[in-house]
Amino acid sequence: MAKMLRETFIWGASPSGFVKLTDGNGNRMLVRPERQREIGFDICLKQHLYTQPSVYQGRGVLTALRLSDGETALVRQYRHGGIFAALTGAWFFTWPPRPFRELAITEELRRRGVLTAQVYAACVSRGCGPFYRGWFVTQELRGAVDLWSALQEGLVHRWGVENTWRAVANSLRALHREGVYHGDLNMKNILLRQEPGGLASYLIDFDKATLFLGRLPLELAKKNLDRLLRSARKLDPERRYVSQEDWRQFVEQYYGSSGA
Known about the structure:
It is built from ten helices and twelve strands. By secondary structure, the protein is an alpha+beta fold.
């Protein structure tokens, strides 16, 4: 029993479809077996040697690794924001490790039909005591752009403003229907891509997500939408790209077909 609890404390609720790797130096990785040959510890620990800068940004630039089948893996190192950025930088101490927790949540959402990026691997490197650094490796959604970039580049008008906000509303409604509160919802964590069936909206970065039983309570759903609005106002204080009318249309799209 003690061993089982220790394993759960270290690995978290590891989903099926991943293998557990350790290297004897305190480093651990969950990786899809079909990607194990190309995605190993060095891709994370020596990220600057094996990957190239990508066009995507989070708290720092994500790096990219071209795989043998033509797909691209995006490697993101976890970094603190806010006051912790100066204090601990890329070191974390919450257990189970954040990369393994995000992997489990993301895979569960994919299983439930929520549109999000496929996870290739998650990696943790131990430091002193409870501290660790973490990395998250996902499949690049080829042709996708984040909502903020799409607004700035005029893609929203090409796709249709109403059509764009409908796609975003549908993805968030699906997320909330599955009982998920996105703790870091913002304009850059929503990816849009034109697909044969129409415009699709993908949600990413579930590091701070919280899962509830059943549908997300209405007050939390509203809190999540308010968080997205704050992101829009922070990036676009003059409302050049997200007008009051745009937001009203989005809210109507979200509630209009949700029964909320």
